[in-house]
Amino acid sequence: MTTRAGDRSDGTTVWATPAWRERATAWADDELAAQGVRRTGAVEQPHLRPWSTVLRLPTSAGSVWLKAPGPGLASEVGLYPVLARWAPEHVLVPYAVDAERRWLLLPDGGEVLGRRLTPEAADRWHLALAGYARLQQRVSRAADLLVAAGAPDHRPQRLTALLEEVADDAAAVTVTDEEREVVARARRERGRVEELAGVLADDGTPPTVQHDDLHRDNVFAHGPRVFDWGDAVVAHPYASLLVALRDTAAPYGVGLEDPRVLAARDAYLAPYGGPTAATLRVVEAARTVGILSRTASWLRALAPLPPHEAADVREAPYRWLAMLADGESL
């Protein structure tokens, strides 16, 4: 993780300018025209965040979205073509990709699942989880391609080194004594991480794409299709349940042993053979080491940002790392 604040030729100060929007729009217009699609109205910029921005283009084919991730999440640009090739029914298939400028041109996915507390919404979430598991199974054959395309390599054999990398990167930007203590305690979990990595390696389930932020606001109801792959890594697939199960539990205010959460877990595991005792042991190992991926993702996203843009969320990687250090319930 070497990109730091000041290394950027984009970011909110650039993305907010008319000149950048004009360049991005011109590229999108050309790419769409080559595919028989024309823009029909003014371009909007509904999202402008420190780590990415999005433009919405009304076109003859409906809304089209131009996404520009920052350098910390740039791997998403390389991942989309691989995912679209291997599992097109589970993701948005890009109109175009510009890897050098980190631009993605995507069709509209429709309504997201969201956090509706109805039986029908739960059924859609279960369907999405099962579909996502099938995507992972298919894409496992392309794991090396995903790493070559830019996905961080968090496969079991890399986890001990990943702990040290995450701790080093977190230590380099600590501000408070509490943050420094979290990093020190996380380093002392090396033995546990080695043990859990062994559990994952012995399991035999092939590593694959692991979205790393799988929640219902990142899933389109139609399909369902998963989007927003900027945090994705190549890892043991079950690590995706770290976020997915917490997201399932949160709206109800319940723990992870609640039947509604277990139903979501089991829907995800169905394509993998269901929740056997052996599988559940692997699930817990994957979810625990998945904390390292979440921490690393936040550090990647925040590293290029100037302090004033990172201020509101700079504590996020330490909150995740503290869960590993404290052995907190996931």
Automatic annotation (TrEMBL):
Key words of the record: Transferase
Domain Aminoglycoside phosphotransferase as annotated: residue spans: 68-256
Species in which this protein is naturally found: Lapillicoccus jejuensis
GO MF annotation terms: transferase activity
Listed name of the protein: Phosphotransferase family enzyme
